[in-house]
Prior knowledge:
The structure is a single chain. The relative contact order is 0.20. The chain contains 2 helices and 4 strands. It is 25% helix and 35% strand. The longest helix has 16 residues, at 41-56. It is elongated, with a radius of gyration of 14 Å. The N and C termini lie far apart (33 Å). A 4-stranded mixed sheet has the order 3-2-1-4. It has one domain. It is an alpha+beta fold. It has helices at 41-56, 76-81; strands spanning 2-11, 15-24, 29-36, 69-71.
Amino acid sequence: MWGTDATRFYTEQDGWCWFFGAIEHRIDGLVGWHTAKIGDRWAALEPLRQGVHQVFGRFAKDVARGLRIRCDWGTPILRRCVDQRGEVV
């Protein structure tokens, strides 16, 4: 089973950015990560694409069939601080 999570961070050069990660729970290791200025669904899928390529040797249809993925929605404190648009309040 793999887990995915994301967090938003600030840099003086680029402003607000996103970090996305995919973790293999069996080995407690990162199988893919991605940073992006825009945190959309395509940016969120990039670490999974990297992980499939790293673990299964290629990224193609059905190559990772049966792989289970869970999404971490963040800490309860962070969830209370973010409104419906994803903006920190």
